[in-house]
Amino acid sequence: MSQPWEPGDTRGPLMGGRGGRGQRGLGPVIQTLNVPSGDSVPQLRHQSPGVTTAVPVPTPHGATAAPHPTATTDCVPTAPLTPSPVCCCVSPQALCSVSPQDLAVPNTGWSAAMCEQFQRLLRRAADGSWRRIPSYRRGLDYLPEVVQMAVGVVTRPGPRLFLRSVDEEGAGFEYAIFLHASGHRTQCLCQLGPYLEGHHGFAHGGAIATLIDSTVGTCALAVAKASVMTAKLSISYLAPVPVGAVVVADSRMERHEGRKIFLSCHVRDTKRDTLYAEATGEDMWCCGDGAGDTETIPQNCASG
Ligand SMILES: CCCCCCCCCCCCCCCC(=O)SCCNC(=O)CCNC(=O)[C@H](O)C(C)(C)COP(=O)(O)OP(=O)(O)OC[C@H]1O[C@@H](n2cnc3c(N)ncnc32)[C@H](O)[C@@H]1OP(=O)(O)O
Fold it and tell me: Annotated region Disordered: where (predicted)?
């Protein structure tokens, strides 16, 4: 029997297939999902605390469920976005087999709340104090500054980025990261989809950790301007995050010492009423001596 998917297959076990994202545009809970066995898993809506979300219910014959009540189809950004970068990778044949698609923009899986917050952050970025960071399926592809600083010469396509491993719009992580002009702070607007469920109706702690690690890691990358690795991550989970919730992970560099960058992160709801998690992390320059200095940056990225 053939494997449902194999390493290197960009579809992954529960994914809609190459280029599937953007083609179907059906949102998080309105599709019949393909599972490795070939069975289908229709999505039914389930009311959990504070959110309407989806639970997959296996049936022998999949049915198409009704659209997600919060999904929107007119989720079109009104403010100008950073244009998708031209593919300028070192090995175009290897890296450009899949056309680059910036995924840090609204799709039909984004809830109205997610779209609203995205627009708010775009408006805030209009004065240049923040910028939206494009995001792709493959973490380092098509992003010249990161390709150059992180890996130098790329000879083969990179693996898929964990956060972009689900093609179904709205089913996994939907997010856009904004980088402060100081280069010392990142904010990730994120909607946690039904595939990230842990306890019934709530996001898995590992999903929250992934969100935090990525927000912190992007901040560390921007600080280091070189390849960094997470060396330590300490998270306090303070309140469960409902599946489907829109949250903001806010990370900033606290200081750096030699090769170590010390960062903090807070995950809140968009109204800042609920603090879901707080974290501290240490990222390390992978090579060299770091910045060579000790620096503390408490103030210069405080806006917003
Ligand atoms: C412009 C921006 C665009 C952005 C565009 C975004 C693109 C999209 C990006 C998404 C962003 C995703 C971000 C994901 C980030 C991961 O998920 S990374 C994966 C998880 N992390 C890992 O796998 C790391 C595994 N660990 C390691 O590789 C190694 O242990 C490390 C951390 C590199 C350190 O190893 P090493 O360089 O050999 O260090 P070593 O010489 O042993 O020790 C040096 C010092 O560090 C200390 N140290 C070593 N390890 C540790 C530790 N774990 N904890 C604390 N201290 C330590 C030692 O005690 C020593 O201290 P001193 O004696 O000097 O005082």
Answer: 1-28
Ligand 1 neighbourhood includes 272 CB (under 6 angstroms): no
- For residue range 123-175, list pLDDT tens digits in order: 999 999 999 998 888 765 545 454 445 544 444 556 778 999 999 999 999 99
**Ligand 1 geometric centre to CA of 229 (Å):** 4
Q: Is the CB of 212 under 6 A from ligand 1?
A: no
Evaluate: CB of 217 within 6 angstroms of ligand 1: yes
Torsion over CA of 210, 213, 214 and 215, rounded to 10 degrees? 120
What is the dotted CATH code of the domain comprising 71-296? 3.10.129.10
Task: Read off the tokens for 114.
Answer: 């997610």
Q: 283: Cβ below 6 Å to ligand 1?
A: no
- Would you say residue 247 has pLDDT above 70? yes
Choose which residue among 261, 284, 286 to substitute to test ligand 1 binding: the one with the highest number of ligand atoms within 8 A of its C-beta.
284
Token code pair at residue 95: 């890296």
Domain ranges of the chain: 71-296
Question: Ligand 1 pocket check: which of 229, 285, 287, 301 to mutate, most ligand atoms within 8 Å of Cβ?
Answer: 229
DSSP calls for 33-67? EE-TTS-EEEEEEEEETTEEEEEE---SS--PPPP
256-298 pLDDT, tens digit each: 999 999 999 999 999 989 999 999 999 998 776 666 555 544 3
